[in-house]
Amino acid sequence: MTKHAGTESDWDRLRAMSDAEAEAGALADKDNPPLDTNRPGVASVARVKVIRRALHLTQEEFSILYRIPLGTLRDWEQGRTEPDQAAQAYLQVIAKEPETVSRALGTRSAA
User: Fold this and answer.
1) Does residue 16 lie in a domain region?
2) What is the CATH classification number for the domain harbouring 104?
3) Which of 8, 52, 101, 105 is the most exposed, fewest CB within 10 Å of its CB?
4) What crossing angle do the helices spanning 85-96 and 42-54 adopt, rounded to 10°?
């Protein structure tokens, strides 16, 4: 992966952000605008991003840690597709017991 000047993440600053600051930053992201809340499935789509951000993981880290294909995760977060019932249940387990899931999968946190 090519690094571009000024695009490296300041992980300490990001981890120190409050939920409100993270939410404000997400809403200001021109490359990933907020979803239209009047669309069906928006609650489950938005929940994927909330879970990932609450764990302080990038899409790539979340994908690797929980063995969800990166393209699938991006599609869910951007509203192109919705997680099916099994995936919604899996996401709910991740939200409640992230360490248990990663331990069961034999992966470890990238954060």
Assistant:
1) no
2) 1.10.260.40
3) 8
4) 30
Length of the chain: 111
Give the domain extent around 111: 40-111
Provide the residue type at 57 as one letter.
L
Task: Give the span between the Cα atoms of 59 and 91, in whole angstroms.
Answer: 14
| Distance between CA atoms of residues 64 and 71, nearest Å | 12
Structure tokens at 47: 């929940």
Contact 42, 36 (CB under 8 A): yes
Cα angle 50, 52, 55; round to 5:
105
Per-residue pLDDT tens for 71-110? 999 999 988 899 999 999 999 999 999 999 999 999 975 4
Task: Domain count for the chain, please give it.
Answer: 1
- Which residues lie closer than 8 Å to 101 by C-beta, 6 or more apart? 66, 93, 94
